[in-house]
Amino acid sequence: MSLVIERHGLLATLQDAGRFGVRHLGVGQGGGADWISQRWANWLLGNAPDAAVIEITLGGFSLVAEQDVCLALCGADLDAHLDDTPLAPWRSFVIRKGQRLSLNQARLGLRAYLAAPGGFQAPAVMGSCATVVREGLGGLHRDGRPLAEGERLSWRGTSPAPREVPAERIPALDSRAPLAVVLGAQIGDFAGQSLFDAFNSDWTVDNRADRMGVRLLGPRLECRSRDMVSEGIPLGAIQVPADGQPIVLLNDRQTIGGYPRLGALTPLAVARLAQCPPGSVLRLSPVGLEAAQRQQRQLLALWQHGHETSTEQARRTA
Amino acid sequence: MNLRIEPVAIDCLMLRLFDAIDEAHMPWLLAATQRLRETFGAALVDLVPSYTTLMLHYDLEQLDDGQARALIQQALRNLEPASAGSGTLHRLPVWYDASVGPELTRLAERSGLGIAGVIERHSGREYQVFALGFAPGFAFMGLVEPQLASPRLATPRQRVPAGSLGIADRQTAVYPSVSPGGWNLIGRMPIPLFDREQGRSLLQPGDRVRFEPVDRAEFIRLGGDASPFEVQP
User: Fold this and answer.
1) Residues B47, B124: one domain?
2) DSSP string of B114-175?
3) Distance from CA of A266 to the nearest CA of B (A)
């Protein structure tokens, strides 16, 4: 018994936290781009924070349930419906046998995260089921293919009772707050004016944006280091190619590269950027490393408490 | 070696060990990699070597910036380079042919070496693996002779067949799997480079590689796909 994909839409992929410990082999990270929404979806079902979920981009997606099950939906508002009834995100809900869940079009944000009890079942490739299309890794068939019509998904656990993410915890996907940047890498090689521009200008999200990276349009940034020797690229790195328009590198980025960088977005800022559709206007602002680390630890602690212990989960499964 | 440590992300430090690409640096990078893995243990998320740098991704829930830096200093104290020639020497068969290496002819003409000359020069030296990146198991090797150096194609190909051997500037590499790519292709190599089930790459930083010319029949016998470039699906 399972969920059957009826329409896959623009892009629907299985994602967990991604692949780690393999970057030195040239293997990328993958994983949910808005990892915060992904974690909330898992939290709603008492799953491990990084259990496998479906990342649904922009909509055009539907599935049909072959049995009753409690699912959770977080992240973008993609005009979700359960049959004909509108379904707001940031909650878990029961889908009955024969019912259809559809995510139609983006009303707020870009990427929705659908979780199932215990996480979706998917084979691990190098320790993760994360789908990286470019590398041909992960997903239902281990080969990087996105989810497709007719495919069936099953899950690992049993359904808990539905609940909601506390209202005060729901991230504001249309927040205008600047995206925090940990300064570093080649920042010293950028012209003074460019550094001023980077943090005092509006940046527009280009339509060349995907899980590899998001291009930002704005003032031209000048850097004197060119033809750099390639080096490792962290998540959220802001690289500036010769055209002076920055590209923020996301989960499906290459492992090494040779463009100069201003630094990297914090993980929180990466999650927010992953929900910004083309045309969004945003700002960047520098953040101190210590403050950023403190904030990140606080954020991670959020999901430590709400989770059942494995004993509780075992008891419920029994 | 003149170590500089810089933050590049909330949980990543860039260790800059050298200023320029040099084969002589590899034993130092290898030794540093080994020491850092031992010292950080489970607090290490990823360690990405590349030519002159090591990017160290540590677990923010176990270490802060200061602790990570202290561990790096501890790990690299009294570092000795890995013993010379410690990397594995691989002999990789290559079918150098214009039908599978569309830039072979142009490189032969531009360098004035002729096709036989290009093959002789390219297979005539031992290359060092500097880094893995771009794609799983893609090994950046060098350095090719200056006469063979070629800038990347102005327009990258959408689809480069697996096993394609290419040159970009003074580097050379084999595409482990089908992918887009802008390197100048001069032949094809039949041996699989990356095992995705096990997460193993045949070539590792610090390894040495020698390419050995084989003919079409031998290339096919070794499991190579000899279909000409143009008719690849």
Assistant:
1) no
2) HHHHHHHHHTTS-EEEEEE-SSTT-EEEE---GGG-BPPPSS-EEEE-TTEEEEEBTEEEE-
3) 6
If pLDDT is split at 50, 70 and 90, which confidence band does B84 have?
A: low
Interface test with chain B among A231, A268, A300, A303, by most B beta carbons within 10 Å: A231
Q: Domain count for chain B, please give it.
A: 2
SS3 B78: coil
User: Token pair 């892009």 is at which residue?
Assistant: A11
B132 and A231 in contact by Cβ < 8 A?
A: no
Residue A187 touches chain B, beta carbons under 8 Å:
no
Residue pointed to by tokens 């630094």: A263
Cα separation, A304 vs A297, whole angstroms:
11
Q: Is residue B81 part of a domain?
A: no
pLDDT of the residue at A182? 97
Instruction: Find the helix packing angle between A289-306 and A35-44, rounded to 10°.
Output: 20
Report residue B39 as tokens: 């010292």
- The pLDDT tens digits of the residues spanning A153-207 come to 999 999 999 999 999 999 999 999 999 999 987 898 999 999 999 999 999 999 9
3-state DSSP percent of chain A in helix, strand and coil, to 5: 20, 35, 45
Amino acid at A181: V
DSSP B83: P
* Domain at A179-287: CATH code: 2.40.100.10
The answer to whether the beta carbons of residues A26 and A73 sit under 8 Å apart is no
Q: Which backbone phi and psi does A268 adopt, to 5 degrees?
A: -60, -45
Structural domain range at position B137: 89-231
Listed by number, the residues of chain A in 229-268 with a beta carbon closer than 8 Å to a beta carbon of chain B are 229-237, 254-257, 261, 263-264, 266-267
Cα separations in angstroms, B99 against B79, B95, B216:
48, 10, 11
Contact status, residue A71 vs residue A95, Cβ threshold 8 Å: yes
